[in-house]
Amino acid sequence: MICPNCMSADITLFHDSVWNYIGGKVYKCGHCELLFIHPMMNDEEELAFYKNYNAHVLARGVTATATALELHNASLSAARERLAIVSKFIKEGSKVLEIGSATGAFLSLLTHCETHACELNDENRSFSTQFLTGSSYPDVASVDSGGFDVICLFHVFEHIRRPQDFLGRCKELLSAAGVLIIEVPCADDPLISLYDCEAFKDFVFQPMHPMVYSETSLDYVFLNAGYRKTEVIYHQRYGLANHLAWFKNKRPGGDAYLEGLFSGWDHYKDVLRDVRKTDTIYYIAKSMN
Ligand SMILES: [Zn+2]
Questions:
Q1: What is the CATH number of the domain that holds 136?
Q2: Strand order in the sheet with 148-154
Q3: What pTM does this model have?
């Protein structure tokens, strides 16, 4: 077996199960630090998986939303949190494409920009058009406009099995000085890298995330695709109460009592950010040519 990112043969078993995926295991590359699932789903399995995606989301205990409007309203606070982090890269009048834009919650906040959306789900894409000043597309292959100042993906890149091909396509769509912004779950999540929490690892490694990246493994994938790093931002979404709930209850969903006890302990997130062990990482890059 070789690393799908840097092709190194320095591979070790990292975790011996993948959530809801019989036979799947998680391996770590000793060279670029990538965590990856083996075997990965093939095209046919992936298609069947995403057709049944809502059932998977429900099975993971994530709050289900019945309509695009409900999903949209539930997404707005995360969208505002994202904008606060990346707003410095988005200027007045920027031409912005979000890939995997769902109902357009993030794009709806960019009232000062030209906004375009790429979203596979027909209902969500149709809902999002009310917020767009540009076009909407079902997939990145069908985008018929270029020169984007900003292309962004929030919790989408980790779903992609062929990141080199995808990043190549993004390069075609970016303007000469355009920036690509991705937000992904971080392999240095403290529940993995500090606490080695087995219950969390049983849950977090899932077939729809074939690769889990650290800054080092992102450096490899972006450099190989002809990008240079502009900035990396470590961000901790979940707080102390959530982490303690993993140890207490050994399942997702948090714990109301612990939330009450530790609601004001936000300094915990700052400490994790300072040591670069966070659940989320933003990687911002530009094309080298
Ligand atoms: Zn590697």
A1: 3.40.50.150
A2: 136-137, 114-118, 95-99, 148-154, 174-185, 280-287, 227-235
A3: 0.95
